[in-house]
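so ive been stuck on this for like two days lol. basically i have the seq below and the ligand is zinc ion, smiles is in there too. i just want the complex predicted, nothing fancy, no docking runs or whatever. if the output looks off dont worry ill sanity check it later, just need somthing to start from for the group meeting slides
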Amino acid sequence: MTTSPKPTKPKLIPKRQIKPDIVRKNLHKSIKSFTLQRTGCWNPTSKIKIDRCKPCIAKKNEGCRFINIRAFPTSAFESATSTTEYRENDIVLEDDPYFMDYDGPDPISKYKKLTTMTITKTNYRNIVLQKFCKAFTKMLQEDSQRVIEHGTLIRRRAPLDNVRHVCDMCLTSIFNLHYMCSVCALDLCVDCYDKNWEEKQNSRLAHCTYRRKHTKEHMVPVIKYKTATLEQFKEQSSKMDEDSKKDNTLYSNMTSTDTHLNESVSTKTTKDENIVANDEAFMSDENDFLIVDADALTLDSFRTCWGMGKPIMVKNVMDKDSQELWSPESFINKYSVEEKEDGSKKRKIKVKTMTEVINCENGFVHETSVENFFKEYINPTLRKGYKKGEPVVLKIKDWPPKHDFGEQFPDLYTDFMRILPVKEYCTVNGYFNLSNRLPIELLPPDLGPKMFIAYGSDQGEQSVGTTKLHCDMADAVNVMCHANKSDDCAAAIWDIFPYESMSTIRSFVKKIALEQNKKIIDPIHDQWLYLNDTLLERLEKEHGVKSWRLYQNPGDAVFIPAGCAHQVSNYHSAIKCAYDFVSPENVERCLDITRQFGCVRREDALQLKNTLLFAWSKLYSSD
Ligand SMILES: [Zn+2]
Ligand SMILES: [Zn+2]
Ligand SMILES: [Zn+2]
């Protein structure tokens, strides 16, 4: 038996402690002769080593957080001597760092101008701004209050491009004021900084470099934007908020057409056989929401209902051409074969396109051909387990995988964007979609479209293809493009709950978890429960909360307001396509949900606060 020598690890001896009081003291002092850090923390050619920031430790100088903010007295480099305290033969700066204010321009004006929005009607500008000025003012006030509290301790650090700047603890996006560790540049959002530090000592982020533990005193308060810039926005938005309170008619005048809403809702819709079951809900006062034919829908009628926080169903959004395009037969014709380079013969050959599918029952993933998947979609008797009475239920995972929808399926993309109702809200260029104002450099979220293709199972709510109760950060529109219907039942049944009932639902679901002995972290965000008829009845009886029930069939678009808990029961195999957006009406709710997601460490891809900042600056200065 041979033994190979163990590689010797570099000796890590606990480094000198940076004394918190010195960090804070240095924030008050100014020095004449200092060297500002202009490159990443990791300089392999230099013998002099400095503490590295988190990104530099992980990726070697990508997105360094100390550039242009950390400085050392110039004398420190001269007096630095070899020390065994760190790694042998390395020279370590003995001096504690200073942090400098970045005085460069705000990036807000720097980012490229966006493409023209679909509406440029001037009076919509104020309507949009007015819808979110209250939430925006509150957000800026909270921020500036902190900035004032910290006074001269604050340092400004330029925001980095092409990095989604998030709190290292909870993954929420950081808008302006936050806290940076003076040693490893860990970034904490305000909420995480405020949380109990005793508890934090147990988390994996408790550790700074070299066996140090993070303490509040190590954290430097940092801002990203010039205070004057944000003050100006705050003045603009609080004035608009005040004005709209003083004079409610100021803005409502512009929406006078809304009063005709009830007439504009087509009577044709009530004749539709699919709505019969829903007729009562539609007519009754307490449970009404807008069901409207695509031809009869106007922007103003949409805005009125949407402004009430209710879901909306738009029927018949697809014409004949669309129906054909989105059929499984068309998918087989178009997407089941692809051309591939034949390496040896240098010519293209045709091969079957493969895709990953998930077994809804057990979550297992396997590969199958697109052709087989859709053949079984059309004809359940071909599915595995059919003879035993348990046909396998599959869904396609992320199709197209890792590709841009528009690039992969240009026909489908164009058609989907064409058929979407109220494009002003739910398309990439929609004037009422705030999300598209976020500059490319800040890595805006992927809003879709996203396709969902799943086999149905006749068991309805018991079925594994069911989407359990949950809520999303963004508004969304979900179009059923095709369903393999064999009977008159609705292809999918949606239960959407009013946003106001969220806390009631949360405690109800907690109660159910207790009864079922189920361990949960968050009653809604865990997405673990489908409320069947019995539970829905209990929720109404015990708490007076009732859902809006929507019956979705091919050609129907369902609009789900952000933050509304919802669940879907799928009865038939269906192809659905969805698009996310951020409407000004639901900004406050979005902010709320974002905060909740922070508690369960879900990434805040929407970057809502940054979105608001850029939406405000773009819209306010437009005319
Ligand atoms: Zn660095
Ligand atoms: Zn945080
Ligand atoms: Zn640290």
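The two ends are 81 Å apart (CA to CA). Residues 167, 169-170, 172, 188-189, 191-192, 598 surround zinc ion (ligand 2) (CB under 6 Å).
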